[in-house]
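User: Here's a structure from my thesis project, written as structure tokens. My advisor, Dr. K., wants to see whether a designed sequence matches the one we expressed. Can you design one independently, without my sequence as a hint?
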């Protein structure tokens, strides 16, 4: 007798073979039989009525980092059939935090205004998630934005030697705590302030743990080829697997995907482990702040507000936003 029997399902088992009709027998939380189980008993039975039963989906790009600490059920993932999610994308992750203040990057702080942040590093964050209960399997990258803010704030400048060492140590700590790799968000302050060398040095740390480098690239319009080239360069110079997140050329580069994919294919033929993904719909979404020129965000939100209050600087921000906003691509 099974603990649970799912009857009359269309089974897609993930092997690539076409769907077939069948039942699933489960004991102690594990699938122990698949096929025609019509004559078996079970403590509980579910009639799938011909709906699809398949292994859970893996969502390799989510931003649940802070919301999952508020509500661990992850219902928005589970109701889509997602049972494993990878967080910490686009340079923003739950940890490390600076002074227990989460780095939001492109995330909307209003969504987590009820959140009390009581962790600095991932081990403390993971303990909190486990104590609350988590609806999906979760994995995370460490955000470059978190690391830079924790080490040197929102300053628009290269790191000093001490700050660079601090960043390396934070990346090492995150990897030791279980992060899968480093993500950068080069369109979200302080991401744009990082130069290639900084990203390479941090990715080398990730490489020593067998981790990967992923990037929300610096530009998705006129300079998208250079921006993809930067990810390839980090992968090559740090000898790590590199991945371009949601490659989606914006106007006037619509249609350039063919060339970009050819570049990536060529690198793969040369033996480089480089890949990309795409958003499966025709729009993107991001924050209003990412439309602003990066210099306006130098020093953080309070510095931005000071600049906006000064009429001359505000006008300059306005002019640059019209230019930069169109380039950022979202
Ligand atoms: Zn992104």
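Assistant: Designed independently from the structure alone:
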């Amino acid at each position: 007798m099974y603990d649970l029997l799912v009857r009359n399902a269309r089974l897609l088992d993930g092997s690539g073979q076409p769907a077939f009709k069948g039942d699933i027998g489960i004991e102690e939380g594990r699938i122990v039989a698949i096929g025609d189980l019509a004559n078996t008993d079970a403590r509980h039975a579910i009639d799938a009525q011909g709906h699809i039963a398949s292994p859970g989906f893996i969502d390799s790009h989510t931003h649940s980092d802070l919301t999952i600490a508020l509500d661990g059920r992850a219902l928005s993932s589970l109701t889509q059939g997602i049972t494993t999610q990878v967080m910490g994308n686009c340079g923003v992750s739950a940890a490390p935090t600076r002074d227990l203040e989460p780095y939001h990057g492109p995330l909307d702080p209003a969504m987590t205004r009820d959140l009390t942040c009581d962790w600095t590093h991932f081990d403390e964050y993971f303990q909190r998630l486990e104590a609350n209960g988590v609806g999906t399997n979760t994995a995370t990258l460490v955000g470059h934005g978190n690391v830079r803010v924790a080490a040197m704030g929102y300053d628009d400048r290269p790191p000093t030697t001490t700050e660079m060492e601090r960043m390396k140590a934070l990346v090492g700590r995150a990897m030791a705590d279980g992060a899968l790799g480093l993500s950068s968000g080069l369109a979200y302050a302080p991401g744009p302030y990082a130069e290639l060398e900084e990203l390479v040095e941090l990715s080398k740390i990730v490489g020593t743990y067998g981790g990967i480098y992923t990037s929300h690239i610096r530009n998705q319009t006129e300079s998208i080829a250079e921006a993809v080239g930067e990810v390839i360069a980090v992968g090559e110079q740090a000898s790590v697997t590199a991945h371009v997140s949601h490659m989606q050329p914006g106007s006037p580069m619509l249609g350039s995907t063919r060339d970009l994919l050819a570049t990536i294919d060529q690198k793969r033929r040369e033996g480089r482990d480089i890949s990309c993904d795409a958003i499966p719909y025709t729009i993107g979404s991001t924050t209003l702040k990412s439309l602003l020129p990066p210099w306006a965000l130098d020093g953080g939100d309070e510095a931005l507000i000071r600049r906006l209050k000064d009429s001359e600087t505000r006008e300059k921000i306005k002019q640059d936003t019209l230019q930069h906003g169109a380039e950022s691509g979202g």
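When you compare it with your expressed construct, this may help: The chain has a mean pLDDT of 94.
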